[in-house]
C-alpha cells in the first residue's frame, strides 16, 4: 500500500464513511484511496465550507469529521473551519497537501508554514510520511477524540502521498470511555454534603454532558434535589426543554434574566460545562461543583470540589447518594420561565415578522 491507501483504510476502519474537501494535485492519490475503500467524497465550493461540513459530521456522528484541502491558499482557507471545530470541541481530522519535500525549503509558490498556521487552532499539527503513517493516523484519531474533543491537522507532502508505506499497520486505539473511575479533588471534599446543604441549586450542563449522553442523569439529579436546569447553547436538547425544571439557556436570548437566576443560586453543579461557550464573564457568588471528564484547568470559575471521570456515572452515583429536597421547585421555575417569555416577547411589533414569530412557528411545526 502507498501512504494514501493506509490513510484511507484507517479512516474507513474508524467508521468514517465520507470526506469533505476541495482537492488539488497533492490530493489525487488520497482521493483514489478513499474511492477504493468505498468512502464518499463531497466536494465543497471552497475549503472553509467543506471544513464546516466536516465539523457538522463530527457533531452529528461523534466520529472525526475529515476535511481535505490542497496547499497554500487551500490550507489557509481551511483555517476558519479548523478553528471553529477547536472552539466548538468537535473531533476533526484536517488534511492539507503540501509541495514535495525536495523543493519545500527553497520554493515559494503557494508554500505556507502549515505547522505554524494550524498549531494555535488545533490540538495537534504534524506532517505525515510513509514511515510514520500508521502511527500518526492512530495518534491523530486518539487526540481528536480525547477530552476535550477537537481538530488535528495533517500535512501531506506531494512526494509522500503516493510513496510506498513503510508503516502500514492499521490498529485503532480505544476512543469510547467505559470506565467508571472517578477522581475527586478538593481538601476534605464532600460533594454529597455540598449538594445536601444547598437550598437553591442549579445544574448547569454543557457540551461534554451532551457528548457523553448524560441527559437522563442530569434530569434525575435535578428532580431529586429540585434544581433548576440551565443549558449551555451547544448542549440544547440534552434535557427536553419541556421538563418542568428546565429554566432556559445561558448567554442567549434574554440572558440578563438567566444570569439573575444563576446568580440567585447557592450552588452551581457544572456538569460538563465548558467556559468556551460563555459570552459574559463569570460573576456568580455561589460555589461550583465541577463535574467533567477533565479537571477545572480553565479556572473560569472557582470550584472547591472537582469530580473528574464519566459524567453520566458521576451524576448517577450522586442521585443514589443525595437526599431528596425541594430546591427551587417546579412552581418557582415556572414563574421564572413566564417572566423569561415575557422578556422574550417584549418589543414585538405587530403587523411585521418578528424573530420571535419565526421561533414560535418552528416550535409549533416541530
Explain what you see.
The protein has 366 residues and is α/β, with parallel strands linked by helices. Helix content is 37%, strand content 17%. The protein contains 13 helices and 13 strands. β3, α4 and β4 form a beta-alpha-beta unit. The longest helix is centred in the C-terminal third of the chain and has 16 residues. The chain is elongated and about 70 Å long. The chain starts with a helix and ends with a helix.
Search tags:
single chain; 366 residues; alpha/beta; 7-stranded mixed beta sheet; 37% helix
Number of strand elements: 13
Structural class: alpha/beta
Name the strands of the widest sheet in spatial order.
Answer: 7-13-12-11-8-9-10
Number of domains: 2
* Biggest sheet statistics: 7 strands, mixed
Sequence-ordered SSE layout with sheet pairings:
Layout: H1 3-13, E1 18-22, H2 28-36, E2 40-43, H3 47-61, E3 65-69, H4 73-87, E4 92-98, H5 114-118, E5 124-127, H6 133-145, E6 151-157, E7 183-185, H7 191-196, E8 201-205, H8 207-211, H9 215-225, E9 228-231, E10 246-249, H10 255-263, E11 267-271, E12 288-292, E13 305-308, H11 311-321, H12 330-345, H13 355-365
Parallel strand pairs: 1-2, 1-3, 3-4, 4-6, 5-6, 8-9, 8-11, 9-10, 11-12, 12-13
Antiparallel strand pairs: 7-13
Helix pairs in contact: 1-2, 1-6, 3-4, 9-11
Amino acid at each position: 500500500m502507498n501512504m494514501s491507501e493506509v490513510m484511507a483504510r484507517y479512516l474507513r476502519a474508524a467508521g468514517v464513511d465520507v470526506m469533505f474537501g476541495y482537492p488539488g494535485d497533492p490530493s489525487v492519490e488520497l482521493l483514489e484511496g478513499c474511492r477504493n475503500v468505498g468512502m464518499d467524497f463531497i466536494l465543497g465550493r471552497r475549503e472553509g465550507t467543506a471544513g464546516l461540513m466536516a465539523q457538522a459530521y463530527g457533531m452529528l456522528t461523534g466520529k472525526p469529521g475529515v476535511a481535505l484541502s490542497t496547499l497554500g491558499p487551500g490550507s489557509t482557507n481551511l483555517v476558519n473551519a479548523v478553528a471553529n471545530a477547536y472552539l466548538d470541541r468537535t473531533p476533526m481530522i484536517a488534511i492539507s497537501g503540501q509541495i514535495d519535500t525536495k523543493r519545500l525549503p527553497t520554493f515559494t509558490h503557494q508554500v505556507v508554514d502549515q505547522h505554524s498556521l494550524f498549531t494555535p487552532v488545533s490540538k495537534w499539527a504534524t506532517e505525515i510520511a510513509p514511515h510514520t503513517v500508521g502511527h500518526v493516523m492512530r495518534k491523530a484519531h486518539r487526540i481528536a477524540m480525547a477530552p476535550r474533543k477537537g481538530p488535528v491537522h495533517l500535512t501531506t507532502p506531494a512526494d509522500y502521498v503516493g510513496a510506498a508505506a513503510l508503516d502500514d499497520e492499521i490498529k485503532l486505539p480505544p476512543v469510547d470511555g467505559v470506565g467508571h473511575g472517578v477522581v475527586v479533588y478538593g481538601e476534605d471534599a464532600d460533594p454529597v454534603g455540598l449538594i445536601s446543604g444547598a437550598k437553591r441549586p442549579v445544574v448547569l450542563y454543557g457540551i461534554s454532558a451532551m457528548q457523553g449522553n448524560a441527559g437522563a442523569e442530569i434530569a434525575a439529579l435535578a428532580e431529586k434535589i429540585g434544581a433548576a436546569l440551565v443549558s449551555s447553547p451547544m448542549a440544547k436538547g440534552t434535557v427536553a426543554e419541556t421538563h418542568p425544571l428546565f429554566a432556559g439557556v445561558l448567554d442567549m436570548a434574554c440572558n440578563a434574566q438567566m444570569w439573575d437566576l444563576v446568580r440567585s443560586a447557592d450552588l452551581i453543579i457544572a456538569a460538563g460545562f465548558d467556559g468556551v461557550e460563555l459570552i459574559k464573564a463569570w460573576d456568580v457568588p455561589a460555589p461550583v461543583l465541577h463535574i467533567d471528564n477533565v479537571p477545572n484547568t480553565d479556572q473560569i470559575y472557582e470550584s472547591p470540589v472537582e469530580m473528574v471521570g464519566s459524567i453520566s456515572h458521576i451524576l448517577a452515583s450522586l442521585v443514589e447518594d443525595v437526599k431528596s429536597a425541594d430546591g427551587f421547585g417546579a412552581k418557582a421555575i415556572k414563574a421564572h420561565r413566564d417572566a423569561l417569555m415575557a422578556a422574550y416577547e417584549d418589543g414585538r411589533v405587530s403587523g411585521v415578522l418578528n424573530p420571535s414569530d419565526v421561533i414560535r412557528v418552528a416550535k409549533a411545526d416541530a
